[in-house]
Amino acid sequence: MAFLQDPTLIVEWLRQLLLGWGLSPALTSLALYVLGALALATGPLLWVIFLIWFERKAVARIQDRLGPNRVGKYGLLQPFADVLKLLTKEDIIPAKADKFLYWMAPILSLAGVLLLWPAVPLGKGIGGNVNVAVLYLVAVGTLSTFAILVAGWSANNKYALLGAFRTVAQMISYEVPIVLALLVPVLLARSMNLQAIVAAQDVWFVVAAPLPALIFFVASIAEVGRTPFDLLEAESEIIAGFHIEYSGMKFAMFFAGEFLHAFTVGVLGAVLFFGGWRGPGAEAYPILGLFYLWLKAFLLYFVIVWVRGTFPRVRIDHLLDFTWKFLTPLALVVLMATAVLDKALVRAGAWPRALGLLVVNAVIWLLAQRWLRKVEKRLEPPMVAQPGQYPVARYTPPEPQAAEGD
Amino acid sequence: MDSTWVFIGVFFALAPLLAAAPIVIGHYLGPSKPNPIKNDVYECGLKTVGDAWVRFKVQYYLFALVFLIFDVELVFLYPWAVAYDMLPTFAVLEGLLFIVMLLAALVYAWKREALDWYD
Questions:
Q1: Is residue A163 one of the residues assigned to a domain?
Q2: CB contact under 8 A, A157 and B42
Q3: What is the pLDDT of residue A380?
Q4: Could you give the number of structural domains in chain B?
Q5: What distance in Å separates the CA atoms of residue A297 and residue A185, rounded to the nearest whole number?
Q6: Are the beta carbons of A324 and B106 separated by less than 8 Å?
Q7: Average pLDDT over residues A7-26
Q8: What is the CA radius of gyration of chain B?
C-alpha cells in the first residue's frame, strides 16, 4: 500500500513506463503534463454532472418539491438524459450575432473556471504548488466575467446586453472585497502559495479571520452570479440575460461553468479558511487529505445551494450599495486590525493569536451592526400596511361617454 | 517551480479544448435547419428595433473606473503581506497609511455619489 502513502509513485511508474518505450526525457515530461492536465480537468467536469443532480434535488426539497425522480434511482440519471438531449439539439446561431465571439463565450466560461484548479492543493504533496497562487486565482477568476460580457455583447440582443452590463457592474464591484478578504490569509500565512497557507493552518483561519471568511463567501456567491445575486440572468426581468440567445450544448457549457464555479468557490473557501486537506491522518495518507478537502468543499457548496433555495433576488442599487458601502469598508477595517494585532502578537502561540484576532473580529462586527442600525434609521421607513388600510386595487369603471355623432 | 508553470501552460492549452469539445460535437450531432425567423433576434415576440450594439449609460463605466483604481492599488498590498515578518515597524505603518488612503478614496467616491445608482 505504498501508493496510499505517496501518490506520486504513480507518476514515477508512468515516467519509467514511457522512458521504457524509448521516449526522450523531455517528451516524457510533456506527456505526463498532458496526462495530468487531462486528469485534473476531467475530474471536475464529470463531478459537475453529479452537482447538477444534487442541486436540483436539494433546491427542490427546500422549496417543498420532489425534484428529478423519474430517470433512474432518485433521478440520478437525470443529468445524463439532459446531456444527451442537449447534445442532439439544433445549434441555432443568430444571424445578427458576432459569430466568432458567440462561439468563444461558452468555451471561455467553462475554461475560465477549470483554470482555477491547477493552483489548488489537493493533499500533502499533490495538487497545485504555485508560488503566487492567490494572485493567480484573482487573475484567472476574472475570466468568467469576460465570458459573460462577451456572450452578452456578441448575441446582439438587447436583453443579453443589459445582462452583460449588469455583470460588469456587479462582478467588478464584488471583486474588490474578495481581493481584500484574500489578503488576510496571505497575511496570516506570510505566503501566497496555497500549499503554504494550508500548512500554516494549525488553527483554521476561520477562527482567526471569521469576517474575511464571511466576506469572501458572500462576495464569491455574487461573483458566480447565483441567487440572490443573479441579476445578470434575472429570468423575470431580462428573460435570461446574457445567455438568452444560447441553446443546446453552448447553453449547457454556461450552466456547467456556473455550477462548477460554485463548487470551486467551496473548494477555495475550504483551502483558505477551513484548513484545506488537513485532518486526522491526512499527513500520512495524502489520499485521505483529498477526501477531507472534498468533504469541506461539499459542505460549503451545500450552504451556497441552501442560500440559493432560500433568498429572493436583491435589487441592483442594494446590490452595489452592499459591496461598496458595507463589504469594502468592512474588509479594509478588518485588514488593518488584523495587520496591527498580528504584529503585536507575533511572539504568542498559534491559539492565543487566533483567539485575539477572533475577539477583534467580533468587536468590529458589533460596531458594524450598530452603524447599520443608525443608517437604517435615516432611510425612509419601509411601507407597512396598517390594519384597515391594506393597499387594495379597485376597479373604477369609466364614465359612460356619449356616443359620437349625437 | 518552473515545472509548475509549464504544467499550467499545458493546462491553459487543454482547458479550452475540453470545453470546446462538447460544443463542436453537439454542433455536428444535432439537426441543422436554419431559417430567417428562427435565426432572428429573440426579444419580445415583436420585431426588434435597431441594433443592440449601442452606447449605454455612463453609470456602469463609473463603477469600472472605481474598481480599476481599487484593484490595481490592492495588488501592491500582496507583497507587503507576504513579507510581513521581515518588515520593520515603519514599513508596517506605511502599509497601514496606504490602506487609510484607500479608505479615504472610497469615502471621496462615496461623497461624490460615484457609488450611487441612479434610475
A1: yes
A2: yes
A3: 67
A4: 1
A5: 17
A6: yes
A7: 77
A8: 25
Cell numbers that stand for A371 in this block? 452603524
Selecting from A253, A329, A339 the residue whose C-beta is nearest the C-beta of B96 gives A339
- Position A215 scores a pLDDT of 93
**Residue B34: count of CB within 10 angstroms of its CB:** 13
Whether chain A has a CB inside 8 Å of the CB on B23: the answer is yes
Instruction: Of A157-161, A172-176, A301-305, give the range with the top mean pLDDT.
Output: A301-305
8 Å CB contact of A321 and B33: no
**Cβ-based contacts of A41 with chain B (< 8 Å):** 11, 14-15, 18
The percentage of chain B sitting over the pLDDT mark of 90, rounded to a whole number, equals 0
DSSP states of A67-124: -S-SSSGGGTTHHHHHHHHHHTS-----TTS-HHHHHHHHHHHHHHHHTTGGGSEEET
Q: Which of A54, A46, A316 is nearest to A163 (CA)?
A: A316
Q: Is A173 on the interface with B (CB under 8 A)?
A: yes
- Flag whether B62 is in a domain: yes
Average pLDDT estimate for A128-133 = 80
Q: Tell whether A18 is covered by a domain.
A: no
| In-domain check, residue B117 | no
Range of the domain at B75: 2-111
Classify residue A127 by its DSSP letter. Answer: E
Residues 47-76 of B with CB under 8 A from A: 48, 51-54, 56, 59-60, 63-64, 66-67, 70-71, 74-75
Highest mean pLDDT: which of A127-141, A175-189, B45-59?
A: A175-189
* Residue A29 is assigned to a structural domain of this protein: no
Closest by Cβ to A183, choosing from B41, B81, B83: B81
Grid cell listed for B69: 483604481
Interface test with A, best of B32, B96, B115, B118 (most A CBs within 10 A): B115
Interval B15-42 mean pLDDT: 83
Q: Does A34 touch chain B (CB under 8 A)?
A: yes
Tell me which residue in A130, A245, A332 faces B42 most closely, judged by beta carbons: A245
DSSP one-letter string for A345-398: TTTS-HHHHHHHHHHHHHHHHHHHHHHHHHHHHHSPPPP-PPTT--------PP
Q: Report the gap between the CA of A145 and the closest CA in chain B (Å).
A: 13
- Reported as a pLDDT band with limits 50, 70 and 90, residue A71 is confident
CATH number, domain at B48? Answer: 1.20.58.1610
Residues from chain A contacting residue B10 (CB–CB below 8 Å): 30, 33-34, 36-37
- The number of distinct structural domains making up chain A is 1
Residue B23 lies in a domain: yes
Domain membership of residue B118 (yes or no) is no
All residues at 6 or more sequence positions from A332 whose CB lies less than 8 Å from its CB, including other chains:
A180, B99, B102, B103, B106
The pLDDT of residue A125 is: 72
CB contact under 8 A, A29 and B15: no
